[in-house]
Design brief:
The complex is a heterodimer of chains A (313) and B (448). Chain A contains 13 helices and two strands. With 313 residues, chain A is an all-alpha fold. In chain A, strands 1-2 form a two-stranded antiparallel ribbon. In chain A, strand 1 and strand 2 form a beta hairpin. With 448 residues, chain B is of the alpha/beta class. Chain B contains 19 helices and nine strands. Classes of the chains: A mainly alpha (313), B alpha/beta (448). Chains A and B meet through helix 1, helix 2, helix 10, helix 12 and helix 13 of A and helix 1, helix 3, helix 4, helix 12 and helix 18 of B.
Chain lengths: 313, 448
């Protein structure tokens, strides 16, 4: 009798646990597991969104990797942005955070000034940058020319379009700056005092006091930065459209990745293939590549931790 | 930090979710084939989605719809404007009460996709039942670009014809007596009209770049009457010499007028295509390849010069075909998911074949009428210069671009090659054309 009671208690406990977990379980199943399984399924199907899907084997995979001329440039651009943009965002965000925590007066003004750009909607911010950096009429190039500095083509030059996007990302650094500031202010003051008494230089205080204390936050910034950059869509799309001159005009052909495919990213291909070319199968292949890359990068960072996160953090 | 991996997984899955959830949803609900079983004589309301957005255009659509509702008091039309093709595509997949029964799109390039996917119903049975012969109703190019593989899933709803706008004052100053009829004359005129200034131009004779808005490959190539596909449906890009001539002409223009980099730099300084600072309006470029709508827009900008209009030039050995041009236009069709297809057909029939309706709409929107009868209608009001575009639309040598199973993808691919060729990234034209043709064939095979 007591065994039955114990078993039923276990069952009730398990059910209660499941009930408490159910919001997450449902969310996981609906928004992660099902879409992921569907994406894998459709990557092997020929499907235009209208007619029922038909089995196509590895055709979509072969098409994307061997014959889709935009895939490799988009992959290269995405990796470039992950390496350069994420690194610079972390360095710049940390630098601004450090500067502002050291300022004695007017901290509030500077905090606001650096945070405000982050609030600008991405489309508006990108269009403003396209205007400022217009090679012919933009104020930035006018100033550079007056100073005798050769003015770049920015969003109209394949060599400069990604650096221009990086500048835009650095301008909207407010989110990272706030996170870094919070972490920097949390570093115990006595550790700095002790280091100073030991005669540590500014660099040594940063290297041996600040960095170990904020390393989990740096790790967080890198991981989320990589994931965000993998999903980078709006800014390169708008910049390419504005610079190529096809921002308006229904029926006007759009050249993705203007100029010369330099602003193409993988999420743009998912949209191009799925929603513009009605090739859902190939769109799912690109989406899976994106997923695998995100998981790969994140796994690698978490495993290696870049020497940033100490044991026990 | 331990949560970082599942968090990463969730975030990375976000991109997939958009794709896969929509896939699953459309797989469940987007199957066409409801058939036309409704009674068009009963009281009903249909949804009409269109892309027009300018105030005068919206007013014109209202007037067109009012005319229809007067003629068909039992059919009410719920109009939704300013729609893009992407939104229309989604609505065609999902169906439902709020989805469109009738759509119109500015992009004829999508006809092949609409027809081959079954997103829009074949209108051939409706035309047959109504005793209307589309071949005798619509101009030839418009008749061609509204169907694919015998499936007429769209009708023309006004058309666009492309011609040459020129600055009469600049012509007079350069000593040019009349608009050029051949590309050789055009090249000479473009050079005469170009006045350099510093690193740029005080006046550029013509902006030849493929990024120059309307100077796209298909707009140029129509003047060479090319064949895009052979009888087996394979790309003719590398075989038809018309393409080589077209590319060579454009590249010569780019090189002769200053080179790609210099032209691109100048282009970045120009006002936008749809605003008053368009470089033709401001006198920065003396000749402009454009559609019939440019005349009204240019006049509105009150330019300080007289505007001349003419057909685009033709190759020197085709002078007898001078007067032809590229034809495209707005299209309309009935959603396969619509349960009111007979009522929708009444609307489509009215807006696309009723001569007075077509003429009235053309007058209001300043587009080219899309039926042979409307083109000849005495009720058609127009500036004498607009007649040039009506003549181009009616010219038997005028051409359009054929529908393809993957829509206008082949045109995008050709245009992409154009960018590489004009910028000097590709120098071997013949080899480039062969590679591009192979890409077009591969893309079509993938879409089938």
């Amino acid at each position: 009798m007591s065994t039955v009671t114990l078993a039923s208690r276990h069952r009730r406990s398990a059910l209660r646990t499941l009930a408490f977990m159910s919001p997450w379980l449902i969310g996981f199943a609906v928004f992660f597991a099902y879409p992921l399984v569907s994406t894998v399924y459709f990557s092997f199907m020929h499907y235009d969104g209208f007619k029922p899907p038909t089995w196509s084997g590895g055709k979509n995979w072969a098409y994307v990797f061997e014959h889709y001329p935009l895939f490799w440039p988009a992959l290269r651009n995405t990796l470039w942005l992950v390496l350069v943009m994420v690194t610079l965002r972390v360095v710049f965000g940390l630098g601004i955070g450090l500067l502002i925590t050291k300022i004695k007066t007017g901290t509030g003004v500077f905090r606001t000034l650096f945070y405000l750009p982050y609030l600008a909607p991405p489309v508006a911010a990108t269009m403003a940058f396209a205007f400022l950096l217009n090679p012919g009429t933009g104020p930035v190039n006018s100033i550079l020319e007056k100073a005798g500095i050769p003015a770049p083509g920015w969003f109209n030059d394949p060599a400069w379009s990604k650096p221009a996007l990086t500048l835009l990302a650095l301008w909207g650094i407010g989110d990272l700056m706030v996170i870094f500031m919070a972490a920097l202010l949390d570093v115990p003051a006595e550790q700095y005092e002790a280091a100073e008494l030991d005669g540590a230089s500014v660099w040594q205080r940063f290297r041996y006091v600040t960095l170990p204390n904020i390393s989990p936050i740096v790790m967080f910034a890198v991981v989320t930065g990589v994931i965000q950059t993998m999903q980078y869509y709006t800014q390169p799309l708008i910049a390419g459209k504005v610079a190529s001159g096809v921002i308006q005009g229904a029926g006007t052909q759009f050249e993705p990745g203007y100029p010369d495919k330099s602003t193409l990213t993988l999420p743009q291909l998912v949209y191009n293939l799925g929603f513009q070319r009605f090739d859902y199968g190939s769109a799912c292949v690109v989406a899976l590549v994106l997923f695998a890359l995100s998981m790969g990068f994140t796994g690698l960072l978490m495993r290696r931790r870049g020497g940033l996160v100490q044991a026990g953090d | 930090m331990p949560e970082a991996v599942p968090s990463a997984a969730r975030k990375a899955a976000f991109a997939l979710t958009a794709c896969a959830v929509l896939l699953a949803a459309s797989a469940c609900t987007g199957q066409p084939g409801s058939g036309a079983t409704d009674d068009a004589s009963k009281d009903t309301t249909i949804n009409f989605w269109h892309a027009w957005s300018a105030p005068n255009e919206v007013k014109a659509v209202k007037s067109l719809v009012a005319g229809f509702e007067k003629a068909h008091p039992n059919i009410h039309v719920n109009v939704v404007g300013n729609m893009t093709d992407d939104k229309i595509n989604q609505a065609l997949r999902s169906g439902g009460d709020k989805a469109p029964d009738v759509i119109s799109s500015f992009t004829t390039n999508n006809v092949g996709k609409f027809c081959s996917s079954g997103a829009l119903v074949d209108l051939n049975p409706f035309f047959k039942k109504a005793g209307i012969d589309p071949e005798k109703t619509f101009p030839k190019p418009m008749n061609e670009y509204t169907q694919f593989d015998g499936n007429r899933c769209t009708v023309p709803l006004l058309g666009d014809a492309y011609g040459l706008y020129y600055n009469k004052t600049a012509f007079r100053k350069a000593g040019i007596a009349r608009p050029p009829k051949t590309w050789s004359e055009f090249e000479a005129d473009a050079k005469k009209l170009t006045i350099p200034q510093g690193d740029g131009y005080q006046q550029l004779g013509f902006m030849p770049d493929y990024h120059g808005w309307e100077s796209t490959t298909e707009h140029y190539f129509a003047q060479f009457s090319p064949t895009y596909f052979d009888k087996d449906g394979k790309s003719d890009l590398a075989k038809d010499p018309a393409f080589q001539q077209g590319f060579a002409l454009q590249k010569r223009l780019v090189d002769e007028l200053g080179g790609f980099q210099k032209l691109e730099r100048f282009r970045a300084t120009l006002g936008d295509e749809w605003g008053p600072k368009h470089p033709f309006h401001t006198g920065q470029v003396a000749m402009q390849l454009d559609g019939e709508w440019r005349l009204g827009m240019a006049e509105q900008a009150k330019p300080a010069f007289g505007i001349g209009v003419a057909p685009l030039p033709v190759p020197d050995d085709q002078v007898n075909q001078y007067g032809k041009g590229y034809i495209t236009g707005t299209i309309a069709g009935i959603a396969a998911t619509s349960h009111k297809q007979n009522a929708a057909w009444e609307f489509v029939k009215y807006v696309s074949t009723d001569t007075d309706a077509v003429v009235g709409f053309a007058n209001d929107i300043h587009n080219v009428p899309s039926t042979l009868a409307a083109l000849k209608s005495p009720k058609l009001k127009y500036d004498p210069r607009f007649k040039t575009f009506l003549d181009i639309a009616a010219n038997p040598y005028s051409a359009t671009t054929p529908a393809s199973v993957n829509g206008g993808q082949y045109l995008v691919t050709i245009q992409q090659f154009g960018y590489d060729y004009e910028s000097g990234k590709v120098t071997d034209l013949k080899a480039g054309l062969r590679k591009t043709a192979a890409q077009i064939d591969t893309d079509i095979a993938q879409a089938k």
